[in-house]
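**Backbone description:**
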Amino acid sequence: MTGSCINHFSIAELYVRIVFKEGGRNSMLLIPSFEPFRIDAPERDLFFQLTVDDGLKPVRRDERERIRSFDTGNGETVVDELKNGGYQYIIKDINGADCCLLQANKDFSDCHCALNGNYNMRSFGLNNALMLVFAFAGSMRDILLIHASLVRQNGYGYAFIAKSGTGKSTQVSLWLRYLKGCDLMNDDNPIIRIIDGKPYIYGSPWSGKTPCYRNVKARLGAVTRIDRASANSVEKLSPIEAFSSVLPSCSSMKWDSVIFNRICDTITKVVETTGIYTLHCLPDKASAILCNKTISI
């Protein structure tokens, strides 16, 4: 890797290496949210490496098969399966412009990407590539990247899930405003890990519109889905209901049965060890007090 810029990070206590090939327009300036996770040197085995190289070319058509394209909410991502068992992704922004070409081996431990366009396009493409790689590399290690807003109280992390705009960030803001001892861990994409049979949740470099990039950890206290309602109530879900509630909020690849099944296994472990709830609520102080009283450990 002579002539490359090598960067080391600890994210959810996992060692990630990002390498920028020399001579391009790319650098850590594209992903400033990773700086709180930087470490001086490797502390443990490599989780994955992503090499950023604008000289990367698409795999020949006869060496890949189109799987599908999917809408991420911020743009479209096109997926090809490679004959060697890996994957190729083309990540597009909300305007349909190609921002990133990503190629990954089968277990996502060794990945390469080329970026395209202006600063915003390159930053978008690289951040999304790193999220994708983290989620799918993690599928083999009892790790979930979950779309949630995360608040911590008394050493436990409480994750709120919902469709965008439904009110998960609002509920967390009510906890922060009205309940003692609370702090925001992440507002969009925290990380869940099962370690020695116990669930933990971490801050991450991805936090949506709220700049909350914290290298912090807590025991997972509960996962709660927000449901807007005309009155406040909380219900604890059965295991089947809980699994169905959590799955849509987790990054997954249904077209890869091995990865998808491992993600489902990890969700099952979360359901077996953690209270999963639905909060039917108004966006008011009373809902936060009721929720906290019901789900807190």
Summary: The CA atoms of residues 178 and 185 lie 17 Å apart. The first strand starts at residue 5 and ends at 11. Helices lie at 119-138, 168-178, 239-246, 257-273, 285-295. The chain has a mean pLDDT of 95.
